[in-house]
Write a structure and sequence with these properties.
Layout lengths: L14 E5 L6 E2 L2 E2 L3 H5 L1 H9 L3 E5 L15 H11 L4 E3 L4 H9 L6 E4 L13 H8 L4 E4 L21 E3 L1 H15 L5 E5 L8 H8 L4 E4 L1 H10 L14 H11 L3 E2 L3 E5 L8 E5 L8 E5 L1 H10 L5 E5 L12 H12 L3 E5 L1 H9 L8 E2 L3 H9 L4 H4 L5
Parallel strand pairs: 1-4, 1-7, 4-6, 5-6, 7-8, 9-10, 9-15, 10-11, 15-16, 16-17
Antiparallel strand pairs: 2-3, 12-13, 12-14
Length: about 400
């Protein structure tokens, strides 16, 4: 990575404004999944150990103005338990409350600012709002890869007024995803799933030129199968993307591998009638909800000998058993492959975690949309703005 990181700059005794991704689920005022918070700890602990005065900012959800339901106060309390020291909380991210919280800091202490999205100027990347954030620190560290594809005040705008460098999570994300997008080891296998191809066409086209095989599952596979003239019954098919799928298939040669059998049901819910059948004709009134066992085995076999695997998106309606079996089998195959493995996308990561396989995956990305845009070859505003080495 050619961007400076916190290792490359002075931080001791400085007020350091850090953009983290604390957009985590809350229930009853408690954090229910702290994966993203834990991902920030290497950068945070480094700054604390170096004697920086650490000012954390983040968004949470999509509030319409100030809304206590989206307050980051519970996150401050949870973070304190993870780092074993108090975390102060400022009731605003700019203005007197933020400035007083920052002024009270001593070296090695931490304050978390209130939700940046309580201000509409955040998403507008308003220069005046960016400056109000910037006056809180002497250095800006962006460690929120999951928001790096958005040019918001706290991800891009503030870096126009402060020297800006990467945190360790940002560095790690870029290094692994750059390997997948620009310098892959071969054999290189890409696995893509999820409901739609419309938001992944750019990723498919970019990675087809780099990979040796591309395995397609989930609702995406339905659209590709429909593009080959195969009847899909009541399956989810993106009619508006069928022509795009035809063009992709025409130029892919033998790289794209599609399901040969499917798990179908008469309704998309638990307790439905379920059948397995070879790809050919899904009856009217039935829908494909998972790859079949022959396809799962074929996909697992395709991973043998791979040096690099990138996986984004489940193979079926993973959240409802028994339509999770294809995704689970694939998760086990990825973990057992011995390849450098990069997994992104909520359901793919959930499958890995549910199967207890996270420690066997080389890199689990914290950024869904950001990782897809990076793999598509797009420049991420929150990365581009950082200082070059």
């Amino acid at each position: 990575m050619n961007k400076k990181t916190v290792r490359d700059v002075q931080v001791s005794g400085w007020h350091v404004l850090v953009r983290v991704d604390f957009n985590v689920p809350l229930k009853g005022g408690k954090v229910t999944d702290d994966t993203r918070i834990r991902a920030s700890l290497p950068t945070l602990n480094y700054l604390i150990d170096q004697g920086a005065m650490v000012i954390l900012c983040s968004h949470l959800g999509r509030p319409k103005g100030v809304d206590p339901a989206f307050s980051l106060a519970p996150v401050a309390a949870h973070l304190a338990t993870l780092i074993g020291k108090p975390v102060a909380f400022a009731s605003d991210c700019v203005g007197p409350a933020a400035e007083e919280g920052v002024a009270a800091l001593k070296p090695g202490e931490v304050v978390l600012l209130e939700n940046t999205r309580f201000h509409p100027e955040e998403e507008k990347n308003d220069p005046a709002f960016s400056q109000r954030l910037a006056i809180l620190g002497k250095l800006f560290v962006n460690d929120a890869f999951g928001s790096a594809h958005r040019a918001h005040a706290s991800t891009e705008g503030v870096a126009r007024y402060l020297p800006a460098v990467s945190g360790f999570l940002m560095e790690k994300e870029i290094e692994y995803l750059d390997r997948a997008a620009n310098a892959p080891e071969h054999p290189y296998v890409v696995i893509l799933g999820g409901a739609k191809i419309s938001d992944k066409i750019g990723v498919i086209e970019n990675l087809l030129a780099k990979c040796d095989k591309m395995l397609i599952g989930g609702g995406m596979a339905n659209t590709f199968l429909a593009a080959k003239g195969i009847a899909m019954g009541d399956s989810l098919v993106e009619a508006g993307s069928v022509e795009a799928a035809k063009k992709i298939l025409a130029g892919a040669g033998s790289k794209i591998i599609l399901p040969e059998d499917l798990v179908i049901a008469d309704k998309a819910e638990a307790g439905a009638q379920v059948k397995e059948l070879a790809v050919g004709t899904v009856p009217d009134g039935w829908r494909a909800l998972d790859i079949g066992p022959k396809t799962a085995k074929r996909y697992a076999d395709a991973l043998r000998g791979a040096m690099l695997i990138v996986w984004n998106g489940p193979m079926g309606m993973f959240e409802v058993p028994p339509f999770d079996q294809g995704t689970t089998m694939l998760a086990q195959a990825v973990a057992a492959s011995g390849a450098t493995s990069i997994v992104g996308g909520g359901d793919s990561v959930a499958a890995i975690n549910r199967a207890g396989l996270a420690e066997k995956i080389t890199h689990i990305s914290t950024g869904g949309g950001a990782s897809l845009e990076f793999l598509e070859g797009k420049k991420l505003p929150g990365v581009v703005i950082l200082q070059d080495r």
